[in-house]
UniProtKB/TrEMBL annotation:
Name of the protein described by the UniProt record: Cytoplasmic tRNA 2-thiolation protein 1
Gene Ontology cellular-component annotations: cytosolic tRNA wobble base thiouridylase complex; mitochondrion
Keyword tRNA processing: yes
Pathway(s) served: tRNA modification; 5-methoxycarbonylmethyl-2-thiouridine-tRNA biosynthesis
Domain tRNA(Ile)-lysidine/2-thiocytidine synthase N-terminal residues, every copy: 53-232
UniProt family annotation: Belongs to the TtcA family. CTU1/NCS6/ATPBD3 subfamily.
Record: residues binding ATP: G56, A57, S58, D62, V88, G166, D171
Gene: ctu1
């Protein structure tokens, strides 16, 4: 016996919502999902009419759903936003080249302008070349730092007021867990914020912050959205993987675990005497940084000098030497050269 949709009570239900357990028909699910994103956007006042908003687009399910829903809501509720797609080409053969093709199709399908910036043009290195030098253990550190800055640079080129990214509830919960497990209090405090980067950087927000990954997959599937679902060929990210597996276990026992962890993270308060980094700007490239040199400049310097460990771990004491272009001692060099592949 087919189950009737518990919302419209007319059509047959095609799915059981992971978030609420309700059986819904396709249209009622689409409506509920979109309305929840609209709620997130309006209650946090993420955007103001007249703004240009860059959607970080990777071709994956999250950013494809984000682009689709942003377009729908912008029209349905007259947000008055100028939307565009921003993509980063990390230079990963067999992964990013294919996913960028998806983004290019999305550009046509959604009729939005698209800007692609590449690591090669910005840093002179592709991820393929970086992995050759640094191996597969720390590659995501390079990639993550470079991507963050690359997206900002693309946004600046296009005079974008805000960037929105496809981070979903599972990602945020995972990050809370990871920062908690690492004792990274500064990040723990920041990571649940729906908008970040008011300290001089282009603000970034996460309209899908409360959307479950499972529902994003269902939405993309039933809407027949065109997205790319292959994993990055260099994806080790072991620590995040453990946090993810742990979260999935918790979710299978208690589906609200994801949103519960986010709420816990949002309501944590950090003791007054915890030292928080002071934001300044990088003396080399002008990007926001709590040190003399931003992380991207240090990582890049390490790559260019053949000392890949320079940006991994804490070597702040060496920054003045780098800035002054002074040579490092043999001992310092030796320590920074060794890479665990
Ligand atoms: Fe970059 Fe690592 Fe993500 Fe691959 S898995 S795109 S290397 S951050
Ligand atoms: Zn810099």
């Amino acid at each position: 016996m087919p189950v009737v949709c518990s919302s419209c009570e007319k059509k047959n239900a095609v799915l059981k919502r992971p978030k609420t357990g309700l059986s819904l028909c396709k249209d009622c699910f689409f409506w509920a999902f979109e309305e929840e994103v609209h709620q997130t956007i309006s209650s946090a006042r993420l955007f103001t009419a007249g703004e240009t908003v860059g959607i970080g687009a990777s071709g994956g399910k999250d950013s494809t759903v984000l682009a689709h829903v942003m377009k729908v809501l912008n029209e349905r509720y007259s947000y008055g936003l100028d939307l565009m797609l921003l993509s980063v080409d990390e230079g990963i053969t067999g992964y990013r080249d294919d996913s960028l093709e998806t983004v290019k199709r999305n550009q046509q399908q959604y009729d939005l302008p698209l800007k692609i910036v590449s690591y090669q043009e910005l840093y002179g290195w592709t991820m393929d070349a970086i992995v050759k030098q640094v191996g597969l253990k720390n590659n995501c550190t390079f990639c993550g730092v470079f991507r963050r800055q690359a997206l900002d640079r693309a946004a600046m080129m296009l005079k974008v007021d805000k960037i929105c990214t496809g981070h979903n509830a599972d990602d945020v919960a995972e990050t809370v867990l990871m920062n908690f497990l690492r004792g990274d209090i500064a990040r723990l405090r920041r990571c649940t914020a729906i908008t970040t980067g008011s300290e001089g950087a282009i603000p970034r927000c996460k309209p899908l912050k409360y959307a479950y990954e499972k529902e994003i997959v269902l939405y993309a599937y039933f809407k027949k959205l065109d997205y790319f679902s292959t994993e990055c060929v260099y994806s080790p990210n072991a620590y995040r993987g453990h946090a993810r597996a742990f979260l999935k276990d918790l979710e299978s026992i208690r589906p609200s675990a994801i949103v519960d962890i986010i709420h816990s993270g949002e309501n944590l308060s950090v003791k007054e005497d915890v030292k928080m980094p002071v934001q300044g700007t990088c003396m080399r490239c002008g990007y926001i940084s709590s040190q003399k040199l931003c992380k991207a400049c240090v990582l890049l310097e390490g790559l260019n000098r053949g000392l890949p460990k320079l940006g991994i771990g804490k070597h702040h004491k060496l920054h003045h030497k780098l800035l002054a272009q002074e040579p490092l001692t043999e001992k310092e060099e030796k320590k920074l050269k060794a890479v665990d592949f």
